[in-house]
Amino acid sequence: MSRYANSEKLLERALHTIPLGSQTFSKSKTQYPMGVSPFFIRRGKGSRVWDVDGNEYVDFINSLAAITLGYSDPDVDAAVRAQLEEGVIFSLPHPIEMEVAEQLVKMVPCAEKVRFGKNGSDATAGAVRLARAFTNRDHVAVCGYHGWQDWYIGSTARNRGVPQATRDLTHTWAYNDLDSLTRLFKEYPEQIAAVILEPMNVVEPLSGFLDSVKELAHKHGALLIFDETVTGFRYANGGAQQYFGVTPDLATFGKGLANGYPVSAIAGRADIMQLMEEIFFSFTFGGETLSLAAALATMQKLVRESVIDRLYSQGRKVIAGLHSRIAAAGAEDFLSVVGNPSWSFLIIKDAGAYSQLQIKTLFMQEMLARGILTIGTHNMSFSHSDEDLDRLFNAYDDVIPMLVEGVRKNKLEAMLRCQPLQPLFKVR
User: Fold this and answer.
1) How are the residues of the chain apportioned to helix, strand and coil, as percentages rounded to the nearest 5?
2) C-alpha separations of 395 from 262, 270, 321, 373 in Å
3) Are 228 and 240 in contact (CB under 8 A)?
4) Domain spanning 5-60+307-415: which CATH class is it, in words?
5) Which runs of consecutive H residues, i.e. helices, occur in 202-288?
6) Which of 269, 265, 280 is nearest to 104 (CA)?
7) Residues 98 and 416: beta-carbon distance below 8 Å
8) For residues 117 and 124, what is the distance between their CA atoms, to the nearest angstrom?
9) Distance CA 293, CA 261 (A)
10) In the chain, what is the greatest distance between 2 CA atoms, to the nearest angstrom?
11) What is the DSSP letter of 258?
12) What is the spatial order of strands in the sheet that 41-45 belongs to?
C-alpha cells in the first residue's frame, strides 16, 4: 500500500467539488509531485504535523510561514478558548479590536493607526486603495508578491479574468535595482500613488537600498508601502522595518501576526490612515474576536519571550549546516541557501541535463519520504528543537548526495518515482 494512499483518495474525492482540491494555490497538487507526496494534513503540534496516512513530519513550511510559535501553541489556544466563552462576532465592535491595535502601535515603528482584514491580500489591496485616495493617483509600482486581488495579480502570468484597464495601472520593478524604479517614475510622471515591496524575501537589500526607495518614492510624491505579510513578527518584533531601520508610510501584516489564525492588518501614519473613514474597507468578520485574541496572545508572547532570538539561532544553524553539506557534496554549482535565518531558501538551479523542476521533484520525493515537510524553504518556528534540526540534517545527508549522483551520472529520471513538477506561476 502506498505511503500516501489515503491522501491520494481524498484528493480524488476533493477534486469533484473543489478546483485544485485546495483553497490555496501553494498548498495544491500543482506544488507536490503525485505519488510521492501527502496532500492532506490531519493535525499539528509544535514543530510536527501528521498527514491523513499517519505519517509524521517535521514541518519547515509552517503553513506558508503563518506559524511562528508552533502548532497548537498553548498560550494562543488558551486565549482563544477564553474569548470563545464571550463570543466570536457581535453587532458592535468588541474591545479586543482596540487592544490589538494598541499592541500593534506599541510594537511596529510605522504604526500610528490600524485596521484589520482577514488575509494578507485584504491588507495589501486596502493599503493600495488608501494610497490612491491620499495621493489622487492611480498607478502602482510593485516588487514581490502581494496577493490574489486584481490590482496586483493582473501584473503576473496568472492574470486571466483581470480587466486590461486594471492591469495597465500596475507596473513591476526589480528588487535591489533602483534604476528600474526610477524608470517607472520617468515613464509615469506624477501618476504613481505608491511603491509597494516586500522589504526582503530571498536576498538581502543592498546597503542603502530601502532608504533610497523611500527617498525616491517621496521625491516623486508617492507613498512607500512595506508588505510585511511574511517578514512582520518574524524578522523582528516590529517587522523588517525595525530590522532594517527604514520606516514606511504604510505596512501590511498577516501570517505570523496571530500564529496561523486568520487576521491581517494595515498600519501606518495617522494622517494617511484617517482616510480609512472615507474609503471603503469594511468586513463583516474584520472584528472577529477569536483571531484577534490569538493576535494579542501572539504579540504578547513575542514581547515576553525570546521568540525571534530562537528563530534566528535555529535558523542560523540550518543555513550553516546546509552550506557545509552542499560544499562537501560539491553541489555549489546548482544548490545554494539564501535568505534570512527565520525564512531561508534552498535554491536549485538547472544542472547537467536536468531542469530545476526535475531536480526539485527528486528533492521533494526524498525529503518527504524521510519525514521532512518542505518545498525548499525553512520557515522557522519557536518550536523547532535541536532534535528537529538533526532530523533535517540527517535527511539532507542522504538527499544532497542523491541529487548530485542523479545530476552527474545522468540518472535522475530513473531515480524518480513520479512525474516531474511542471512549470507554473511562481509567487516569488
Assistant:
1) 45, 15, 40
2) 32, 49, 12, 11
3) yes
4) alpha beta
5) 209-219, 240-244, 270-273
6) 265
7) no
8) 10
9) 9
10) 67
11) G
12) 41-45, 48-51, 56-59, 372-373
| Residues 274, 393: Cα–Cα separation, whole Å | 50
Q: Which three cell numbers stand for residue 7?
A: 491522501
Tell me: domain 79-301, CATH 3.40.640.10, correct?
A: yes
- Per the listing, cell 494579542 goes with 296
Coil, helix or strand for 175? coil
Distances from the Cα of 304 to the Cα of 76, 160, 227, 299, angstroms? 13, 46, 25, 9
User: Per residue in 59-82, pLDDT tens?
Assistant: 999 999 999 999 999 999 999 999
| Crossing angle of helices 209-219 and 178-187, rounded to 10° | 10
Give the DSSP H/E element, type plus range, for residue 373: strand 372-373
pLDDT confidence tier of residue 130, bands split at 50, 70 and 90: very high
Angle at 55 between CA 391 and CA 425, to 5 degrees: 85
Mean pLDDT (whole number) for 269-285: 96
**Cα–Cα separations (whole angstroms), residue 75 to 12, 296, 404:** 37, 10, 44
pTM of the shown model: 0.96
The domain locations on the chain are 5-60+307-415, 79-301
**Do 369 and 32 meet the contact criterion of CB atoms below 8 Å apart?**
no
Name the pLDDT band for 423 (thresholds 50, 70, 90). confident
Count of residues in the chain: 428
- From the list 423, 424, 381, the residue with the least C-alpha distance to 71 is 381
Segments in 168-306 forming alpha helices (H): 178-187, 209-219, 240-244, 270-273, 289-304
Residue written as cell 501572539? 298
209: nearest Cα among 226, 189, 228: 226
